[in-house]
Design brief:
Distance between the termini: 56 Å
Radius of gyration: 22 Å
Largest sheet: none
Strand content: under 5%
Order of helices and strands: HHHH
Number of helices: 4
Number of strands: 0
Length: 96
């Protein structure tokens, strides 16, 4: 077996890593950028295209895409309004 071979552990490691590399590679090549990221950057049309691609086959796709864009814009506005927090803020409040 591979127990007595000095490179045997490397072969086992490579065999386990191969599917991960394939999945990551396919994901990067096939999936579009995050619609929320695109909206945050002001690329509404690119976000719309990404949502249309992700929602292919959905009934009333235009309405769903419009809803998703509005929802993302509202969420991003709330996050911006809330401001930046710090790590220290996690330990303040009524819990501690």
């Amino acid at each position: 077996g591979l127990v007595n071979i000095s490179w045997g552990w490397r072969l086992g490691f490579a065999v386990q890593c191969f599917p991960c590399v394939v999945i990551i590679g396919l994901t990067i090549c096939v999936l579009p950028e995050s619609p929320k990221y695109l909206i945050k950057r002001g690329n509404i049309e690119d976000a719309r295209r990404a949502l249309m691609l992700l929602g292919r086959g959905t009934a009333e796709l235009e309405k769903v895409v419009d809803f998703e864009i509005r929802s993302a814009e509202e969420e991003l506005a709330k996050l911006e309004q809330a401001g930046q927090g710090s790590f220290k803020d996690l330990f303040h409040g009524t819990v501690f």
